[in-house]
TrEMBL record:
The keyword Disulfide bond does not apply. Pfam families: Uma2. Keywords: Endonuclease, Hydrolase, Nuclease. Transmembrane segments: none annotated. GO terms for molecular function: endonuclease activity. This is Uma2 family endonuclease.
Amino acid sequence: MATRYRFGVEEFERLFQGVKHLELLRGEIYEMSPIGPRHVFTVARLDKNLQVLLGEEALITVQSPLRIPPHSEPEPDLLVLKPPLEAYAERLPEPQNVLLLIEVADTSLEHDRAKLALYAEAGIPEVWIVNLQEGLLEVYREPQGSRYRLRELVPPGEAKAPLAFPHRPIPWS
């Protein structure tokens, strides 16, 4: 019988530091799906829109790790974090630093939806999934236990304001 081994975040960081396209989710290591042109374009456009609209009020990171102790370290497509940048000079961001988490999903849609339970349990206040398959923005708010109480579907062409910036609608499509 094969032995199953679960990793903690410290061990994962030590053993796999610098290895791209890996996520630690609940102690298990996942190789992330390859990223296609639509995914790259959507992430770049969202990054640009967020940078312009939020300026110095938030820090935007792209495909960077989020440390969720003790057994998870996903790499969301975009994180909108509490400033200042210097706060992350010696440590990775953790859930209490996150204002908004965004996943862009094409072939990874089911995997990204499966991570919602982890994000809710960690208390991340708002998660957006840009669903490229259906051309919709899925907005999840009000984490409670392992789920989000509110789910909203936003059609293409309609901007959405994050909870942390209610007067700053973000174009997503």
